[in-house]
Structure formats: C-alpha cells, structure tokens
Design the sequence.
C-alpha cells in the first residue's frame, strides 16, 4: 500500500509544507518558486498572453499520458496557438483525501517533463485537500503566461485561405473512451497528448503566412471550425476524404457511432494559412506528424457554416457539437 | 426548482457556450474577454506579480460572503500583500452536475462586485462540469496578475520591527465552523472576508516604512508568524492581551477548544513595520478596522520561533499549526 494524502496536508501548516516540499518543490524547484511569498515577482513581461485551464480527466493515467502531462501541455498549447512562447505557469491542485502519494509524485514528474519540453517554469502553486467523495482523485488547474512572438489570430482569416490539420484526429477522445470502457483492441490507441510549442516554434521561425492556429480539444475539429466560421462570418469547407484518421480510431468510431470530427484531440491543431504557403506549412507539419494534411479552404459560400464534402460529391453542414459527447475528456 | 447545470454544459460545444455567454459573460464582460481566443493578449505588463488560489470552501454561501467573493478577494489579497495592484484575473470553474443555475449566477454576481472593489478584470476562464458526487457543488480557481507598486517582502524584516494586526482575528474560521455545525449564537459571527486592496493602496501612498504584509488565511496568525520566523531566522514576540478578538469569537473558541491564533482570516493581515512608523501605520489601519492593534515586535531572542507572552508575564512558544484544524475553510 502506498502512503496517501491526508486532510491535514491541506491545512496551511506543517503537513501542508511537507507535502509541498517533499514532492512538489523537490521536482519543480526553481528560483521563482524559491522566492515566492504570497505571490511571485516576475518583473516586466513583454507582449503577455494569459490563459487558464482546469483538468478533471478520468482516468488520471491513460495510454499516452496522464493528468500531469495533459495539464501542462494543454495550458502551454493554448499559448502556442496564439503565437506565444510559454513562460510562467501556476499549479492549483485539488486532491482527494486518501489519494496515493506515489501517484501524486508520478503526476508531478510528468509535469516536470512536460515543462522542460516547453522551456517553462512553475512559479506559484496552491494545494487543497478535500474529503473522500468530494473529488475524483485529483483535479489540476494550470494558468499560464507567455510572450507573444507572432500574432496568430482568427481575425486574420479570409476567403481563399487554406485549412490544414497537423495530424490524424480523434486519438485522445478515442483512447480515453476505450480505456474507460475497457475495450480491448488489437492496436491500443494512444492519445495524441503532447506539447505543441516545438512545432509552433518552427512555424514562427518560418515566416510563412500563417493566419490562425487552434488545438482541437473539447468538441474536436467541428467546434474549432464552427467557432471560426461564426466569428468570421465565413464558410469553412473541408473534404471528408482528406481528414487523416487511423484505422483503429475509425474502427472504434464506427462501432460506437461517434463522429471523429467532434472527438477531442490534445496535441493536434487546425491551421489556417494563406493559399500561397499551404504546401510549405504542410512540409513543416509533416516533420512532426506525417499524417498532417491540407483538408479544405475558406470561402464565402455559406457564411457562419462549416461544409463537409464527401468523396462522392455530396455536401452537408457540420454543426457545432452539442450534448454530452464524452464528459471528463480533459 | 431552479434550473441546473448539465454535463453537456461542459462539452466545449453549444451548451458550454450558452452557459458562459448567458451567465459569465453577461456579468463579467470586458474588452479582454471579448477578444480572447485560446488565450488573452494583455500586452506589456510592468513589474508583474503572479499568484494562484483554488477554493473548495463549504458551505458555499456563508455569513459575510460566498465562494465567489472569497475567490476574488483571496487571490487579489495575495497580490496586495506583495504591494501589487490587482489587474488581470482568470477564473477556472469546476461545477457538479445538477448545481443550481441561480446559485451559479449569484456566485458570478459576487465575483463581479469584488472585482470592482479591486478595479480588476477577468480576462480568461475555463468551465468543467463533473458528474454528481465528483465535486461539492462548485470549486473555483483564480489566478491573478498584478503590478507591483511597492516592494513589501519578508526579506526586509529586521530585529526591533513592530508587528501589527489589521483587525480582530479568527472571524472567518469561527463563522464557517459555526455555520457548518449549525451553532446558534446571539450575535451571528460574520466572516471578515474582504478585499484588502483598498487598505493597501493607502499604505503604499503613505510612504511609511512598511516591511512586509501577509493575510492570515489557512493556519491563521500562527502560520504567518512561524513562516516568517523560520525564513528570517528571527524571533516574533507577541502579547496575548493585545490580540484583538470579538467576544462571540472568543466564546466559540473557548467552548470548542480552538486557538483563535490558528483559525483562518480572509480579510485580516499581519504587518511588520519599522519601529519609527508603527503608530502612523496603526492610524491608517484603524480607518478601516478600529480593532487594528500593535501586537508585538521582532527580536533575536529565540531564532525561528514565535513567542507568546501572557498578561501575567508567562511565556510560551506558539507553534506552526498542524493536524486537520478546520478543513475546507477556503
């Protein structure tokens, strides 16, 4: 039996300090954390971008990641999608009494690893412990500040722009669903959970005409395209046959009746690019995921709608997702 | 019956958008929120201070406040204690399926009111919905960025400095405890939950020799003084008779055997001040709370310890709090 988190560890006193020092500081320490008092002094921050994300995923550990990796990658990806380099992160833990300390440490180690990929630091944190039955193990909030190096924004999207996807879709959603339901597959599906800063850094350095990026998390590709279509009052036309999908993901979607376009991704993004640069951007994306693809273009045909064209020439609207889809996916 | 939050409202799709637009944006909208994409562009931030706090308090509504007021006040107070003006806040909601929409709106209204006291803005947010039994109603994370106007820090504390308290102590802890246990008192105890920026602003403008401020939340005054004593390797000597305590709070502490020095406050802080300015600082504090008091001084007598002197001349160490104290106080 591993030792576990007690209510006393959330008391603001001795046990609280011990939990933080022995596990959190041990792995995540840096000069910011060391000098933190009620808050942490960052000094001047240029071109700041600010974001927040809470994670309540179940299961906490899944094929391809865990809640720790997901929290850091998820928050940093939000910054990267805006053209910002992740810099300073805060960690807010809500932990259930009885949660294993070894599991907690495993999560903190994942956080550390993902931070180093983003070259970012945890600069402040907070830990609350709630009684058994008031939380599913652990919830994590990550808030993050980045420095914007390049202005990627949906405001730049115009007709004739090309729509690209950075890799095959729906892997995170399909993986979590299969894991939760105990579905056994010949090839276990691994979540795409990963930090996108590495890719975005190259996109920024390329100087290509990239308009907007967005990671297709909750609500999937369908939610991203619909949000953009509504905001820009433009039509987003995509070709079904061009949407990259692994066989095992297609399989699980067909069996269960899920539309892969609404399933969550956690390391796959949609990019809108000036038509002159679509192939060059694709080339960069393929260095990181060979399944990256140009999937469509922006038009004025049906403003505020997403149009899905099949191989046989039929066309239908792809709606903004609604209903429960898959709760607790992130 | 009020309408309630559904799992679908956490899906990243239509219902999610509706919840945010109809309740959160309706009350909290500003140009930052309106232009937010994956993150929010803040531009250059000077002398930034960054903090995070998660709130899991029960009950959610209490005499003197609610989880919404507490979240904003708590995070902003962390900044104020560092000498920083609160500027930009993020909100991370974790809501239990079935939570009343009217209660949610009441919390959002409290957030709005407390923001205006701090002259601060919500610039980004995140909402997750978890199934019944996976959260006690609602948990809130607030992360906040402020601009540091004056360097209040424990690093400046020296022997002979005076220790002040901004008002009578232990009201938040006593109020929550009484409310939770259904204890009926002649004078119902009201939490001290409040935003300290108003007071701190005057302290900054005074130009007086103020070294450090710290709000005495979880672990109370005892935790603050012990942390400072350990960090500075100095002795913090306080006089028991000078510690302001309301009769009804003293009463509940005596009946239940609580030490008011370890009970949480949410709008009361400890200040360490150069000895030449103690009376002048006291005068400012008393404009906001007539119970403010000079309670002791910093010495070299017992490094890393807090010394409590009784009216009768006896002396004892006040230890760092340990054990469960009062879980879920913030």
Sequence:
């Amino acid at each position: 039996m591993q030792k576990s988190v007690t209510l006393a560890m959330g008391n603001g006193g001795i046990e609280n300090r011990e939990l933080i020092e022995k596990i959190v500081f041990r792995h995540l320490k840096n000069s910011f954390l060391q000098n933190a008092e009620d808050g942490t002094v960052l000094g001047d921050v240029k071109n700041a971008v600010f974001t927040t994300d809470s994670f309540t995923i179940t299961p906490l550990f899944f094929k391809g990641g865990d809640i720790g990796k997901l929290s850091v990658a998820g928050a940093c990806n939000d910054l990267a999608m805006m053209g910002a380099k992740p810099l300073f992160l805060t960690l807010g833990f809500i932990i259930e009494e009885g949660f294993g300390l070894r599991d907690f440490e495993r999560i903190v180690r994942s956080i550390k690893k993902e931070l180093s990929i983003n070259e970012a630091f945890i600069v402040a944190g907070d830990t609350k412990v709630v009684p058994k039955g008031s939380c599913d193990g652990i919830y994590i909030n990550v808030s993050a500040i980045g420095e914007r190096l390049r202005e990627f924004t949906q405001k730049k999207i115009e007709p004739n722009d090309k729509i690209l996807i950075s890799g095959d879709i729906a892997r995170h959603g399909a993986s979590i669903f299969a894991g939760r339901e105990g579905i056994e597959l010949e090839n276990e599906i691994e979540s795409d959970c990963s930090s996108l800063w590495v890719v975005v850094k190259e996109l920024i350095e390329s100087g290509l005409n990239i308009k907007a990026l967005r990671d297709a998390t909750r609500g999937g590709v369908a939610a991203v395209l619909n949000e953009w279509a509504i905001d820009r009052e433009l039509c987003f036309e995509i070709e079904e046959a061009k949407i990259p999908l692994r066989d095992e993901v297609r399989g699980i979607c067909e069996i269960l009746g899920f539309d892969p376009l609404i399933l969550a991704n956690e390391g796959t993004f949609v990019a809108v690019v000036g038509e002159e640069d679509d192939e060059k951007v694709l080339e960069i994306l393929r260095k990181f995921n060979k399944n990256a693809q140009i999937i469509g273009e922006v038009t004025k045909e049906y403003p505020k709608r997403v149009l899905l064209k099949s191989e046989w020439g039929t066309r239908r609207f792809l709606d903004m997702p609604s209903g429960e889809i898959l709760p607790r996916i992130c």
Notes: The mean pLDDT of chain A is 95. The longest strand of chain A covers residues 40-55.
